[in-house]
Amino acid sequence: MRLITTTLLATAVTLCAGAAFAQGIDDPTREPYYSAFEGKRVAYIPVAMGFDLTEGWAAGLKEALEPLGMTIDIRDPNWSTDAGAQAITSLISEKPDVIVVHNPDVQSYARLLRRAEEAGIYVVQVNMRSSYSTDAFIGADYVGMGQRIGERLVEVCSPANGGSGKVAITQGVLTAAASVYQMQGIQNVLSQHDDIQIVSNQAADWDGTKAKNIAATVIQQHPDLCAITGFWDVMDVGTAAAIKESGKDVYLLTQGGGNQMACDGLANGTYSEVVVYHVPGQARDMATMIKHLIQQGQPAGTTKTTLFTPLDFVTKDNMTPASCWSLPGLN
Questions:
Q1: Domain that holds residue 201
Q2: What 8-state DSSP symbol labels residue 161?
Q3: CA nearest 77: which of 107, 47, 112, 99?
Q4: CA 329 to chain centre
Q5: Do 153 and 262 sit in the same domain of this protein?
């Protein structure tokens, strides 16, 4: 009789529990998750708006964070370092929860970013870092990228592989992280290859017209030039134009955020190869890091996190429909 009673009781408990689960139970983590973000403010300072990288990051941040009740405040310095510094100074007084910054060079914003963290503001840097490390950096490993580019220049241009050994480099702004760190990586490789000669190493300041003029002069001085590596695909539209006008077969290895323009350029022969650091992925990583910082609630500047973006070396032969992305109204 006791066995029957126990069995019936266990069955009843199971049925009650089953009924409760059938009706569903609330996730205890939802409320604190959503309430952590409601009303939070993110200020975004690019080098300028109006091109694929900065527009793509802005779109990604908005898509990920605005549905959570957060606001994105864009301060566009329009290529003016002074205007960017003024924007950061104002924001330190305004005290947003997070500042996302795209540094024009390694030094200009360094002290201001430290002041922002000291004021209790989380600081996330994207793709071009400052000499001062903040709560987070999301972007390319430019030293590593430079090393891989150096290896590609050896593969393409070494006399042992049929090349002339002559290569040219077109940097952006000399003091930008994308230039100084990348040059270190390139030098790490080419310093070990006496058969590769850098016949030109100049800065075009991210300007396509300057890049075109530099390339035209170098090709005229070195008709047997094997390759040019440029540090931004938008700038290197000018480099490509100079190569086309020269009628020479010069390998153009460039880099960028993987906007559809890059794949179109590979398809039509504007570029020979593009190193892609995917902007949508960077935007997702920034948003994830912002959500992590806000939920953890530690004082700004407590931790220093680096998330390097995976790199894809894309050519006409290996690109796929997923190699590039599009932002409506940008292309």
A1: 142-278
A2: G
A3: 47
A4: 20
A5: yes
